[in-house]
């Protein structure tokens, strides 16, 4: 059963603690090596197979293959690796204070969802530069990209000299409030660690990642969902993984910097994040708990976004348990159904809107996130990225 956690501040991440006491940082287990198999020669291993009429001696090569493959895993170096890079949504997002350094403290229920990118890594013969390509325009391919920043960070921390050819198959739109870039960076750190034989622990990867982005450490947490900031708690998972949802993003992107410029703390909700979490744990996700303090400033930055949210909520009455904006926008989430309202299909105004069904996902110990079987076919063509 997954757990949820409240973490102390935007840049300090702790995976677990207790409802009634102060938090203690839990230790993370070292990450396991990535599975690598090749064609093997084997000797047949006899096993006994029972049938109704008799007991017969048969040969089952699979056990021998698996045993030998495990030995190869420990010895053979990686040359290629493809990983799923999922995005996240914020079920609620409360801005609680502004710090002296200009950053804000927040309390937000984060959860990874099944929409994501695919990233292919190959070892490069070069010992001086990474090469990044992608399937969409507008994504930076230089050191401004968080993938390259993550690989540079890993080399700096470990002293390794692996450089890579990387292809980013982008499904998650940018400026969407879905953390796609942060997930890409976390995935790149995980990949670099696999190519190096897992020199770093998951805890180290998590701690290092905060140097290039405050959201990135979230993706290294073993348990999902995660609540960031203010009070630290460990409670049973407040949301089942099989809740369907739809993600709807208009072509307009939201600049996080511009949204925060428009944010006014005195206009923020006064709802207690702990109370919100308790309500979700007790009653599930509903409209009254899906509070996002960044919605009003995002609606100032992109006025059409407010109208889109209102129309989805009105058209989907009875269809969705809640309709809300994720993060700093501009994705609108409808919880309770994978289908968008009909006007998204019918009206020319929304012909370029990005639509994807999704559900909550987690990952297993010592493994990265696995691509859901349906995730390659459940979304519309990505809009122009900016």
UniProtKB/TrEMBL annotation:
Name the Gene Ontology biological process terms.
Answer: terpenoid biosynthetic process
The protein's annotated catalytic reaction(s) are:
4-CDP-2-C-methyl-D-erythritol + ATP = 4-CDP-2-C-methyl-D-erythritol 2-phosphate + ADP + H(+)
EC code = 2.7.1.148
Ranges for domain GHMP kinase C-terminal: 278-346
Q: Give the enzyme class.
A: transferase
Q: Which InterPro entries match?
A: GHMP_kinase_C_dom, GHMP_kinase_C_sf, GHMP_kinase_N_dom, IspE, Ribosomal_Su5_D2-typ_SF, Ribsml_uS5_D2-typ_fold_subgr
Tell me where in or outside the cell this protein is found.
Plastid, Chloroplast
Domain GHMP kinase N-terminal: from-to ranges: 145-220
Q: Principal localization?
A: plastid
> Which GO terms fall under molecular function for this chain's record?
4-(cytidine 5'-diphospho)-2-C-methyl-D-erythritol kinase activity; ATP binding
Q: In which pathway does it act?
A: Isoprenoid biosynthesis; isopentenyl diphosphate biosynthesis via DXP pathway; isopentenyl diphosphate from 1-deoxy-D-xylulose 5-phosphate: step 3/6
This protein's UniProt keywords? ATP-binding, Chloroplast, Isoprene biosynthesis, Kinase, Nucleotide-binding, Plastid, Transferase, Transit peptide
Q: Which Pfam families match?
A: GHMP_kinases_C, GHMP_kinases_N
Q: Which GO terms describe its cellular component?
A: chloroplast
The record's similarity note reads: Belongs to the GHMP kinase family. IspE subfamily.
Show the NCBIfam families listed in the entry: ispE (TIGR00154)
Q: PANTHER family from the xrefs? A: 4-DIPHOSPHOCYTIDYL-2-C-METHYL-D-ERYTHRITOL KINASE, CHLOROPLASTIC (PTHR43527:SF2)
Q: What is the protein's name according to its record? A: 4-(cytidine 5'-diphospho)-2-C-methyl-D-erythritol kinase
